[in-house]
Amino acid sequence: MNYSEGVPHLGFIYRNNLTPRGAAGFGFIGQGAAEGISALTSYFPLAVFQRNIIAGGNAAIYPADNLFPSSLDAVGFLDPAGGNYRLAASSPYKNAATDGTDIGANMDALGAATASVISGAPGTSDTMPPTVSLTAPANGATVSGSAPDGVGERLGQRGRREGSIQTSMELTSAPR
Fold first, then answer.
1. Contact between 91 and 55 (Cβ < 8 Å)
2. What is the Cα–Cα distance from 144 to 15, expressed in whole angstroms?
3. Which site among 60, 75, 120, 171 is 20 to 30 Å from 33 CA-CA?
């Protein structure tokens, strides 16, 4: 899971995670420190290490308020053979996170956030053209305006935007 060396790290928080302890005997360890509390104290003083599932881990060497099923098979995934790692309703870890949700990744949120990443197909697209209104500007005048957030996609701008997008153009002839 983690091997540490060097200077200690302050402010470390490891909470509501679901991780296997490696078959070779690796959990949270560090150079010159034993697995578990010894390594956490040496390399992550004052760490918050809470409500984690450490499958195959030893409860006696880790802080209290963590969970130690014998293996990942004992966690209670919905359909691991089919790639569905949501916690089954019968899992003893269902809704056991500190905030009342499932321990581990929120698989529904992860799926929504990564939808179309592999296929390359966009999720929803905005097909509405922007609305532009100009009222008889003078010949040679610079016209500027703004579009609300989201309209930039329709204007050919890409990426994350905060607020409005400023656009400007110069008229080369008087409007008719």
1. no
2. 49
3. 75
